[in-house]
Amino acid sequence: MAVSGPVVIHIQGCGEPNSTFPNGVPLCHDYEIRMELAAGPNQLDLKVPETARVRPPNGGWGEGP
């Protein structure tokens, strides 16, 4: 349970792992949501907009380590 009041949530999103990204393909990096939490239990439905999605660089990701 979190403390009530203003909070900042940072989201690191990863998809399915592959040979280049064994921990998951990056979907978003350090997306930030600011909100107020009410006292008591909170259930959050966090949505990251498509505009925050990580795009592969020109030429692709290259080879993994």
Could you explain the architecture of this structure?
There is one protein chain. The protein has strands spanning 5-14, 26-37. By secondary structure, the chain is mostly beta strands. Strands 1-2 form a two-stranded antiparallel sheet. It is elongated, with a radius of gyration of 16 Å.
| Beta-strand residue percentage | 25-35%
Number of domains: 1
What is the distance, rounded to the nearest whole angstrom, between the alpha carbons of the first and last residues?
39 Å
Order of H and E elements:
EE
Inertia-based shape = elongated
Identify the strand order in the major beta sheet: 1-2
By helix and strand content, what is the structural category?
A: mainly beta
Tally of contiguous helical segments: 0
Provide the gyration radius in Å. Answer: 16 Å
